[in-house]
């Protein structure tokens, strides 16, 4: 029999700021899953709850998006714990940490020295690997299918099995194979899973791609250019493959941090669904590296793929100001737009404020669902994979939507073993093994 203490430091009743601390109830030290940061409407960092580094036996980092990794260097001032992640995640996290420091107008509680400390204490792991953490603790690493290098962690603590998903996607995309649920046991004791899209069913990807390509061709043939603001990790690479796969032969420009991310991902082809297709897609694009190139390339119809995905900074903001005034052009948002972001403002109002100046959009605006998260049907299938005795904690989700999802699970499947914890909540779970 094992008593587990699980504390939600972030991601409880909210999307992002993911941070979960797990330990045996009678143990002094435990394990941290992710340590992410959100940003408020004024771009100030919102950190997860505090945990003392000396109380952490190990950190498991699911992937390199800032809402899962962005607070991690703050733990590496003293008593630095080992951090387990795929080598691809570690390289991508490095550039994301540094970009957060460069772009944030407000104080982040770490600098380059702490970033180096994270990497100095990193232990690379890969899919299918079993890792002995200590005498009574081992971890199994499983493909999560979310972004390149993302992982599920199955942690066994003195016989009790805890699965942490981070963000995951059961469906295959152009870029990645879906999460490897076949290697996830059914008799896990506790599942801590994301529920970003508990009320959304994603449309068939083939339909999304078809309409996406139609809009691009129509815009270019009409003499306009296309701006596609993307997330640096995952979405940039997915969009590049989608353009190449569908035979788009117009100039495709890559700018911003996506250029570096593309090169890092190319070093790890075994993480990709079709490495050859990815490498051809990258080779088919043109990298922009100077302000002179930026200023000159919008004179002719082009397709520009650049961060930031929600238009909060990055080279995409420059292109938005240049292209947004011409109704022949198109702005295509292929990512979720969080409230209080410029992308959300454009979608709902047709205008936004960037750098304290108003941007009024004349260009056509589109949004496409290229999500790399599991939708409602996949989340239901994932929960149904486990034994009725499994305790499921649903995090990284909006509280009201999560409660609606719980009602649906009870009516449709008779499932009542799912709980939606809130931030700072501590749960004690007894595992009889």
TrEMBL record:
GO molecular function: hydrolase activity; RNA endonuclease activity
The UniProt record lists the keyword Glycoprotein: no
Top-level taxon in the UniProt lineage: Archaea
Xref: Pfam families: Beta-Casp, Lactamase_B, RMMBL
SUPFAM superfamilies from the UniProt entry: Metallo-hydrolase/oxidoreductase
Gene3D superfamilies according to UniProt: 3.40.50.10890, Ribonuclease Z/Hydroxyacylglutathione hydrolase-like
The keyword Transmembrane helix belongs to this UniProt entry's keyword annotation: no
Domain named Beta-Casp: residues: 236-346
Metallo-beta-lactamase domain sequence ranges: 16-224
UniProt keywords, alphabetically: Hydrolase
Name listed for the protein in its UniProt record: RNA-metabolising metallo-beta-lactamase
UniProt organism field: Vulcanisaeta distributa (strain DSM 14429 / JCM 11212 / NBRC 100878 / IC-017)
Lineage, uppermost ranks: Archaea, Thermoproteota, Thermoprotei, Thermoproteales, Thermoproteaceae
């Amino acid at each position: 029999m094992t008593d587990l203490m699980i504390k939600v430091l972030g991601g409880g009743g909210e999307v992002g700021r993911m941070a979960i601390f797990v330990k045996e109830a009678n143990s002094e030290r435990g394990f941290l899953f992710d340590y992410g940061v959100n940003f408020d409407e004024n771009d100030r960092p919102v950190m997860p709850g505090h945990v003392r580094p000396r109380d952490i036996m190990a950190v498991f980092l699911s992937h390199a998006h800032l809402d899962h990794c962005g607070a991690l260097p703050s733990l590496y001032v003293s008593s630095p714990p080992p951090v387990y992640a795929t080598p691809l995640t570690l390289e991508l996290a490095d550039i994301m940490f540094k970009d957060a420091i460069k772009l944030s107008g407000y104080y982040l509680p770490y600098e380059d020295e702490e970033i180096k400390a994270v990497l100095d204490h990193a232990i690379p792991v890969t899919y299918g690997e079993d890792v002995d953490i200590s005498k009574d603790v081992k971890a199994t690493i499983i493909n999560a299918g979310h972004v390149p290098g993302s992982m599920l962690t199955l942690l066994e603590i003195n016989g009790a099995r805890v699965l942490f998903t981070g963000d995951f996607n059961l469906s295959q995309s152009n870029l990645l194979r879906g999460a490897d649920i076949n290697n996830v046991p059914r008799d896990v004791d506790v599942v801590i899973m994301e529920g970003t899209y508990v009320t959304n069913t994603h449309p068939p990807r083939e339909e999304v791609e078809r309409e996406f390509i139609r809009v691009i061709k129509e815009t270019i043939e009409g003499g306009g250019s296309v701006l596609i603001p993307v997330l640096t990790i995952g979405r940039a690479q997915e969009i590049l493959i989608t353009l190449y796969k569908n035979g788009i032969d117009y100039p495709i420009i890559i700018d911003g941090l996506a250029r570096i991310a593309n090169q890092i991902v190319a070093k790890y082809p075994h993480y990709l669904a079709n490495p050859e297709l990815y490498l051809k897609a990258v080779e088919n694009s043109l990298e922009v590296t100077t302000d002179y190139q930026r200023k000159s390339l919008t004179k002719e119809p082009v397709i520009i793929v650049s961060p930031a995905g929600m238009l909060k900074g990055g080279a995409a903001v420059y292109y938005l100001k240049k292209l947004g005034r011409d109704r022949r052009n198109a702005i295509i948002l292929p990512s979720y737009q969080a409230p209080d972001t410029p992308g959300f403002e454009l979608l709902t109002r047709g205008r936004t404020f960037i750098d304290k100046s108003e941007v009024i959009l004349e260009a056509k605006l589109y949004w496409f669902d290229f999500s790399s998260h599991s939708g409602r049907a996949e989340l239901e299938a994932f929960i149904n994979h486990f034994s009725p005795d499994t305790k499921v904690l649903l995090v990284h989700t909006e509280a009201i939507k999560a409660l609606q999802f719980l009602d649906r699970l009870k009516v449709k499947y008779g499932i009542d073993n799912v709980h939606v914890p809130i931030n700072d909540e501590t749960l004690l779970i007894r595992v009889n093994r």
